[in-house]
Amino acid sequence: MYINVKNLLDKVFSLLGIIVLSPLLILVAIAIKLDSKGPVFFKQERLGLNGKVFKLYKFRSMCVGAEEKGVYETKGDMRVTRVGRFIRKTSIDEFPQFINILKGEMSMIGPRPTLTYHPWPLEDYTEKQKKRFEVRPGVTGWAQINGRKGLPWNERIKYDVEYSTSCSLYFDCRIFLKTVAKVVFMKDNINTGETVQKKYNK
């Protein structure tokens, strides 16, 4: 029952977010175009509900082709543009995911959508880990307020599974409020190193 209400609320808040934040979104888009060559938006294939592949939207914060040089961003990463550093620190780069929510591909709260090949391919997840795909992926989630980018992937997935089996309005409100605090204080938004455990450590 809550899932149906959650899906409706997600779309309402996303539409309101786009309308209210439209002046900021336009300014960011212009800044990105003026700062570096390439498109305003970065699109990337991710795993969504039930492992279905979809294209996630972000404001582009790196130079074109940056993903070919590795998944992880590190402190002082030269691939990140000047505007990119600001929008990544403030999480503004995530705002285009309102579009993903309106398309029914994502939720405001849920496990962050993983790459199709990272931390490992879908078929390499254990049956228990695959429970993270039983809910729509989110812009923020339980793992993000418990370590965010510094958390090893096997630990992130444990938090994701916990969320997928305990999803509730109270849980979502708790995650949302703690996410706001993380964003305001710009905590845990840079990877500190490799966060993928070997398959046998999952």
UniProtKB/TrEMBL annotation:
Domain of life: Bacteria
InterPro entries: Bact_transf
Transmembrane spans: 12-34
Record keywords: Membrane, Transferase, Transmembrane, Transmembrane helix
The protein's name: Sugar transferase involved in LPS biosynthesis (Colanic, teichoic acid)
Gene Ontology molecular-function annotations: phosphotransferase activity, for other substituted phosphate groups
Bacterial sugar transferase domain residues: 6-184
Keyword Cell membrane: no
Family as reported in the entry's similarity comment: Belongs to the bacterial sugar transferase family.
Organism: Halobacillus alkaliphilus
Cleavable signal peptide: none
